[in-house]
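Final paragraph of the annual report: two paired records, presented back to back.
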Amino acid sequence: MMSASITLLPLANRTKSMSRIDAVLFDLDGTLLDTAPDFHRIMVAIQTELGHPPVDYAHLRTGASDGSRAMFKLAYGDSLNEALLESLVDQFLTHYAQAPVVTGELFPGISELLEWLESESRPWGVVTNKPRHLSERVMEDLGLSNRCSVLICPEDVNQAKPSPEGLLLAAERLATEPQHCLYLGDHQRDITAGKHAGMLTLACSFGYLKPDEKATDWGADLIVERSDQLTHLIRSLTV
């Protein structure tokens, strides 16, 4: 019986798509990694240097999946002109590239999930819209570079998510059929990409959703509200 924080949506193709899971793919920010604390750390440091009031963490977190430009717009609202925005983004990216993982960490339960997948010889990978030089640094800082079987970034494809191109490329590199892959993400574009790739999709509502956003609107096969329930759920899908 599914718990209240795990939703299984009644899709017509579920029997076929859930017949076997050979590989698990993750979005990076907001799904595998809780990046928002580092985003907030860097933004507050920049704002403090400029004598600006620091952005509220809870407010910033809701926009953490949309990139640095969106987060600064969220923090400053209509008072932000284009020249200041470009300057702030440049400063942010410089700071972030130097130390992307300081206060952030894997979401609770993710480490256990990766260990279980590896013990079962099920490869896992990441398909993200984060540039490669940043993604590789993040994975290195987390100690996951040598454990991740495939890392797909925007530089690897013609179109980033919500296009399914990156997911299909990941499946190809893993020598796995897309229908036997599970893709986890915390944004509508993740689920759209996964569905168009023919993969089983899992919406992570513990990620960076906006206040008026509902993961139930994305059309995912599964929804999980707590990251520490992922191992139990995915194990139940693979027996």
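The closing record of the year follows.
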Amino acid sequence: MASTERLPLYGGQAVIEGVMMRGSKACAIAVRSPEDGIVLETRELGALYRSKLTKIPFIRGLFILWDALGLGTQALTFSANVQVEEPDQKIEGASLALSMVLGLAVGIGLFFLLPAGVAYLFEHFLNFPNWSTNLIEGLIRLGLLVGYIWVIGFIPDIRRVFGYHGAEHKTINAFEADAELTPETVQTFSREHPRCGTAFLLTVVVFSIVLFSLIGPLSLWMRLTTRVLLIPVLAMFAYEYIRLSARYASFAWAKPFIAPNLWLQRLTTREPDLPMLEVAIRAFTEMRAQETA
């Protein structure tokens, strides 16, 4: 079996008709082109991934997650640009920055501000106690997350992205089992993985119920403000939890804590076909080549 010391090093992300694989020094993006070829791009990771900040618990989560957001945006942009035929249709510059800002704003508004506002109405107009409205807020947030993922899963293009997501997980699982990285062999592995970004999102939602329950009654504006300002705190705790759960994933006592994250991945992954697995394997092997160069 692969050493557990390398568990935190490798991660990935499904993109449009492709996969990004990230190591400790480099990342590689492999995308299926409209001509049915595979387009590769590799990038050296910044010094952040090798700095002392990545060794400081809780603090490291903020820096790595912010940088991972940037890498994910770059990977999505690259994959989208591979699919377009006209140069003037490519996403870059101001349009890329605007898309990223709007995406963050919509995500915060939908999954943090909306549940907080609804819970405020329960507390101040229906006289629900504060502890119960914090629970209601968390349940609304959880319902929105699961419902959103479930609904977009019916979109054909998103189903393909979820297929690449499954290919990414299968490839990393095969590597960590020291298996041969061929599409036929990788296909036999699970499409679930404890270090998935889906697991991170679910952990943030659960931790938000606990953290926000420690805060007493607030005005509407203070309630909304604290929900936004405490997102980094939730991210720090969630990141450490994911690292810890991945380290002990093979132990029987840890499986109940990991199970909800794996269940949610059944919505965000689909069984990939062999061409999808080929793309994921190409991304992973190219990343590994850059890591060991």
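Confidence is low (pLDDT under 50) at residues 1-8. This concludes the annual technical report; the extension proposal builds directly on these records.
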